[in-house]
């Protein structure tokens, strides 16, 4: 049986993880060995457990202890504390409505290296400074569904393990391998050293169309997506092997990065068939 602890004191330090610490404080860059993240909903928590993430504690509606959360709790050591209260109390504590009434604080897993990612992948998504956690989550969901083998991110972008990002991804941030690109170096050249051609998604006069056959024939291809609003940096585009566009109509100048990723991943992931 899990250790059920009714919430009686909102100021209890054990609840800081859920109520008072920011995402960056949980990330704990100064002490990565003790870095945490918060997963929300049984689906996301279950996929995090499947990926080997270690739970630290739970915060949930009392009714879910023997309901929707029972299967999740049965997978965890009995001494993991489970803080429980009615939904109204939890909403007052956390300041937001819990999706499916269940949160779990977990230790952050070690990330693979770029070399390990490249060795096992044929199609990679590269996200340059994508800042919005909702977009990150949606991109990971599309990557999992549409044939991307992994995701690489620049450090300035949003964290895939932010609560909103992992929730929007439906837990797919734990299914798709990912890691951060090295800082201060030309990472397009790093990818090239591992056998990848890079395709920058940008609407330019010299861009080729997304369905150009030469893209599908590339044995290893990295699809490079830019930040919201400004898109990819000019320097990044200049260093990529291809500049690729999704043709627009009705005067629309571009798609949201999450929507564009779904189109690009379908065409360059599932629809690609290298010779």
Describe this structure in words.
- By secondary structure, the chain is of the alpha/beta class.
- The protein folds into 2 domains: 105 residues, Ribosomal protein L30/S12 (60s Ribosomal Protein L30, Chain: A, 2-Layer Sandwich); 157 residues, Alpha/beta knot.
- Helix content is 33%, strand content 20%.
- It has 13 helices and 12 strands.
- The strands form 2 sheets. Strands 8-7-6-11-9-12-10 form a 7-stranded parallel β-sheet, with helices on both faces. A 5-stranded mixed β-sheet has the order 1-4-3-5-2.
- Strand 7, helix 9 and strand 8 form a beta-alpha-beta unit.
- Helix 8 runs parallel beside helix 13.
- One of its GO terms (molecular function) is RNA methyltransferase activity.
Short descriptors:
Alpha/beta knot, seven-stranded parallel sheet, alpha/beta, single chain, 60s Ribosomal Protein L30, Chain: A, 12 strands
Summarize the structure.
One of its GO terms (molecular function) is RNA binding. With 275 residues, the protein is α/β, with parallel strands linked by helices.
Structural class of the secondary elements? alpha/beta
What is the CATH superfamily label of the largest domain?
Answer: SPOUT methyltransferase, trefoil knot domain
Radius of gyration: 21 Å
How many strands appear in the DSSP assignment? 12
The major pleated sheet works out as: 7 strands, parallel
Count of alpha/pi helices: 13
Strand content: 15-25%
**CATH architecture grouping of the largest domain:** 3-Layer(aba) Sandwich
The best one-word shape is elongated
H/E series: EHHEHEHHEHEHEHEHEHEEHEHEH
Q: Say what the CATH topology of the largest domain is.
A: Alpha/beta knot
Low-confidence stretches: none
Mean pLDDT: 90
CATH class of the largest domain: Alpha Beta
């Amino acid at each position: 049986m899990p250790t059920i602890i009714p919430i009686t004191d909102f100021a209890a330090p054990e609840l800081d993880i859920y109520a008072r610490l920011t995402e960056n404080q949980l990330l704990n860059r100064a002490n990565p060995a003790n870095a945490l993240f918060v997963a929300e909903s049984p689906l996301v928590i279950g996929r995090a457990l499947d990926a080997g993430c270690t739970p630290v504690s739970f915060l949930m509606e009392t009714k879910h202890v023997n309901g929707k959360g029972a299967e999740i709790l049965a997978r965890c050591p009995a001494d993991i504390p489970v803080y429980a209260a009615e939904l109204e109390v939890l909403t007052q504590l956390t300041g937001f409505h819990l999706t499916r009434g269940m949160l779990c604080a977990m230790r952050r897993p070690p990330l693979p290296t770029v070399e390990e990612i490249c060795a096992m992948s044929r199609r990679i998504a590269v996200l340059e400074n994508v800042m919005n956690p909702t977009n990150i989550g949606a991109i990971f969901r599309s990557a999992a569904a549409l044939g991307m083998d992994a995701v690489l991110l620049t450090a300035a972008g949003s964290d895939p393990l932010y609560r909103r990002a992992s929730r929007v991804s439906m837990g797919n941030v734990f299914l798709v391998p990912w890691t951060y690109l090295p800082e201060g170096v030309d990472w397009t050249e790093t990818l090239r050293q591992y056998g990848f051609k890079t395709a920058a998604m940008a609407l330019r006069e010299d861009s080729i169309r997304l369905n150009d056959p030469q893209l599908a024939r590339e044995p290893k291809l990295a699809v490079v997506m830019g930040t919201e609003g400004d898109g990819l940096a000019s320097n990044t585009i200049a260093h990529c092997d291809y500049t690729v566009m999704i043709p627009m109509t009705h005067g629309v100048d571009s798609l949201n990065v999450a929507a564009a990723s779904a189109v690009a991943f379908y065409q360059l992931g599932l629809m690609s068939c290298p010779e």
